[in-house]
Amino acid sequence: xxxxxxxxxxxxxxxxxxxxxxxxxxxxxxxxxxxxxxxxxxxxxxxxxxxxxxxxxxxxxxxxxxxxxxxxxxxxxxxxxxxxxxxxxxxxxxxxxxxxxxxxxxxxxxxxxxxxxxxxxxxxxxxxxxxxxxxxxxxxxxxxxxxxxxxxxxxxxxxxxxxxxxxxxxxxxxxxxxxxxxxxxxxxxxxxxxxxxxxxxxxxxxxxxxxxxxxxxxxxxxxxxxxxxxxxxxxxxxxxxxxxxxxxxxxxxxxxxxxxxxxxxxxxxxxxxxxxxxxxxxxxxxxxxxxxxxxxxxxxxxxxxxxxxxxxxxxxxxxxxxxxxxxxxxxxxxxxxxxxxxxxxxxxxxxxxxxxxxxxxxxxxxxxxxxxxxxxxxxxxxxxxxxxxxxxxxxxxxxxxxxxxxxxxxxxxxxxxxxxxxxxxxxxxxxxxxxxxxxxxxxxxxxxxxxxxxxxxxxxxxxxxxxxxxxxxxxxxxxxxxxx
Length: 484
Description:
By secondary structure, this protein is α+β, with helices and mostly antiparallel strands. It folds into three domains: 1-118 and 139-223, no CATH class; 242-337, Orthogonal Bundle (Helix Hairpins), CATH 1.10.287; 338-482, Heat Shock Protein 90. The protein contains nine helices and 14 strands. It has helices at 2-5, 8-59, 187-239, 254-303, 310-334, 346-355, 377-394, 442-445, 450-460, and strands at residues 78-82, 86-90, 94-98, 142-143, 148-156, 159-171, 177-185, 342-345, 364-368, 372-375, 399-406, 409-416, 464-469, 475-482. Strands 1, 2, 3, 4, 5, 6 and 7 form a seven-stranded antiparallel β-sheet that branches. Helix 4 packs antiparallel against helix 5 (310-334) and helix 7 runs antiparallel to helix 9 (450-460).
């Protein structure tokens, strides 16, 4: 069971079926209640009509013994009750009644049924000659506008059924008040409600089966591309071939967007893995030369101590140390290391770093205005140092560092008057292990990691590092950071 419910198709089908079932049950209950209410209102109207018909005759001064009662075929029992609760007349064949408040079915103080009684008030025969000055017939009573309703049962001619009863008061011209109870059977309402309920009980399972089947088929069709994506991802995982891509369905829905996003992720992962492979290969290549040189010098020193080039061994060791530090920093940056959030004045920071390079071959000129930034002083010092090393390596006579505020950014620019960087190579210089002058000696040109490290650090600080042509014709590297 748990395995079955683990399927999205099964869960979607079950959820849709439950929702539809709840909705149908609620709607069915509302329909049944509304149907029952409407039918009861109709039944009340029938009972009210029968009661008012009898009440109108009483109000017209017709004796209750002569009032026309519904017969047995009319199926509407009637009771006429005098004030005080005495039953004076009853419809034919009424054998038992409940719900009217008067359980008697035989007139009290009179004889017979079906309109029998002890008499009434008024003659009703000479009324045509007795009119008042306004022309109104004084022998007319009143019928109450208000009625009381209730439910009960009655046995008529041996048949017992549920009824709705209505009570109407009628007052004769002699100011005698009677209460007329009339009932209407509920068998039509009960039959209609039972029929509707039976139809719902039969139709509901069929409709739920239809909803379940349609939902399952639609869900399976909708999830078919997902299964294709899953299968291709599984194949990619086992083959380790990141050049493969998952199929993108010819739709514009969430599944298509998922497939496109998955392919973008695969492309980014392929690029990252390829970059990592190149990085490892280039690092191995860069490490091989100083290690081989250092080993050769040490082996020669062991065999011939007088020929040991101590200075060269130290230089190779320093070069190895710097390369290892660069590789370690790049590894930390690739791992997502976050810079510390320290605030400081960028202008004062640049002057401090430049003052420590007084012994360099090319002097550094600083022109900086105060601007506050946030970040890692150590990592930004590494960026500035790499940019200055690169500028001093390629300049002819001068290196200039400027700091200015530009909108919401602080701009640190390092410019030289060398040959500059060709426009086509201005992005390539930031790639790892790239040297534009391949003929330059490795000792002079470095390993090609300085600018790559500088850009990675800038990006980690939420900034950017670009290269343009300097006013003096050389290269100008611009580091942009958000001001704090």
